[in-house]
Amino acid sequence: MMARIPTIIKLLWWLAVGYIPIALNSLNVAYRQLIGCPEKGDCYVQGSELLFSFDVTIITISILLWPVCIWFLGLNKIVMFTWFKKTDIKDITKRRSQ
User: Fold this and answer.
1) How confident is the model at residue 61 (pLDDT cuts 50, 70, 90)?
2) What 8-state DSSP symbol labels residue 74?
3) How far apart, in whole angstroms, are the C-alpha atoms of residue 96 and residue 84?
């Protein structure tokens, strides 16, 4: 059980990092409602000047973080097992431990 704790902590860490763009989007939606923007379409009320840069920031963070999170949440293991033979994986792990 104790050997699995670092793995669980890493899993929770990358899930939390992946949640950052979702949390920012929730904040963006709450801000839009607060200043009185319509649900769809453009918003021309006072205080809406920040919304475009906020949207661009959320999209950029999503593009940068989500592939990394997916990689560390398990895609790296899938790639290792499909691209390398089992003997190659044993050699790689031996080199890492030395």
Assistant:
1) very high
2) I
3) 16
CA distance 13 to 32: 29
Q: Is the pLDDT of residue 90 over 70?
A: no
Return d(Cα 41, Cα 88) in angstroms, integer. 54
Distance of alpha carbon 98 from alpha carbon 91, whole angstroms: 11
Q: How far apart are CA 79 and CA 3, in angstroms?
A: 23
pLDDT tens-digit profile of 20-46?
Answer: 999 999 999 999 999 988 888 888 888
Tokens matching residue 46:
């006072």
Q: In the predicted model, is pLDDT for residue 12 greater than 90?
A: yes
* Cβ-contact 65, 24 below 8 angstroms: no
- Residues 57, 25: Cα–Cα separation, whole Å: 10
Token pair of 95 as six digits: 């080199």
